[in-house]
Amino acid sequence: MSRAHPAGEMSLHHLVHVAVLAASLSFAARARAEELAVEGESVALAAILPVLAGTELGSLIVADAPLPGESRVVRASDIKALLKAHGADARGLALPRSVRLVRRARTVSEAELGKRVREAVAAQIAPCQIASLSTLPAVSLGAGDYDVVAQPSARRDSGRAALVITLKQGDRVQRISAQLELSCPAPVLQPGANVRLVAVQGSVRVSAPAVAHQPGRVGDEIRVTNQVTKRQLRARVIDAQTVEVVQ
Length: 247
Known about the structure:
The protein is of the alpha+beta class. The protein has three domains: 33-103, no CATH class; 107-183; 194-245, Roll (SH3 type barrels), CATH 2.30.30.760. Helices cover 22% and strands 39% of the residues. It contains four helices and 16 strands. It has helices at residues 7-31, 45-48, 76-85, 110-125, and strands spanning 34-37, 42-44, 61-64, 71-75, 98-102, 105-108, 129-133, 139-142, 147-152, 159-169, 172-183, 194-201, 204-212, 221-226, 232-237, 242-245. Strands 12-13-14-15-16 form a five-stranded mixed barrel. Strands 7-11-10-9 form a four-stranded antiparallel sheet, covered by helices on one side. Strands 1-5-4 form a three-stranded mixed sheet. The model is unreliable at 15-31 (pLDDT under 50).
């Protein structure tokens, strides 16, 4: 049979319970790693210990930054080991038990990436144009700008072409395969066409009859034969009747 506890005893028991719970929560809070948002590819010691900012020790790299959207933990023991390796110690420094490095991620939309890819490809495929670009995935990157390098397959006529897209952000590189549908103007010259071959040297301009050996659009380089010297050389297409010697 249970007995009623005096009010004073109940109060004391309750206070002890609250004190134990508060101590547990305090320990859990201390055990939980502090969180530090980082950018770039590496984390200097001064980012964790601002008191070292502007010092040689502060510039030491304590860890590589996590990938965008991920995190990693740096512990006090890691910092002590780093300092020791450089002939220093942690005395006098208030080291956190641990720090969780968090790198925020942002998603590059298909529309944004497609625009950057089209800009990167345009000069390489001229005078052709992009009729369509295959669906691109959404890409996760860290904060800050990034570079886009696009390498289309060597194609000079209308149709489908393979494309390799390389995204660079700091030391991180991502590659994406895609397809282009090219729309190219028709050649203005066909093999066997008689053309006027022009050579320009300073203020001197000479010309001779020649025969084209390849199809070519304006701006293309093709092989031609000088009908006077019988020499074969490369020339740039100027129009449907004229090519210029490539120096």
